[in-house]
Amino acid sequence: AHAHAHAHAHAQKPSQMCGLESGGLWYAADESYKKDFEDDPNLLKKIEADFQKPWGDRRIELVVIGIKLNQKEIEKILDECLLTPEEMKLGPKGWGKFEDPFPEFEDDDDEDNDDEEGNVT
């Protein structure tokens, strides 16, 4: 399966530049995250309140801001990017056979590439 099935990304396009960088692992990708919240069980409950079976916290949150945008056209274009019901049935192992258009993310601990965040024009 693609490594991206277990990690999330932050993308931003404020102008002519577009950046994509690792956001780390989804909590649901590694149960050890619970240890990080042993001192704050209320925060753990809040995080897990957003979990949905079978994917946990994996989701897409997208905000599009602009003037005179064609909402219907934007929704149509984005809907065309979604997996079909048949593709969803393949599951993570099947999705791992799809071409992955995204670059491999650098580890968050890798300070040698701090200026290289995958910016493209």
Automatic annotation (TrEMBL):
Ranges of residues in domain CobW C-terminal: 50-82
Region feature (Disordered): 93-121
Taxonomic superkingdom: Eukaryota
Database matches in Pfam families: CobW_C
Compositionally skewed regions (Acidic residues) per UniProt: 101-121
Protein name: CobW C-terminal domain-containing protein
Organism: Lotharella oceanica
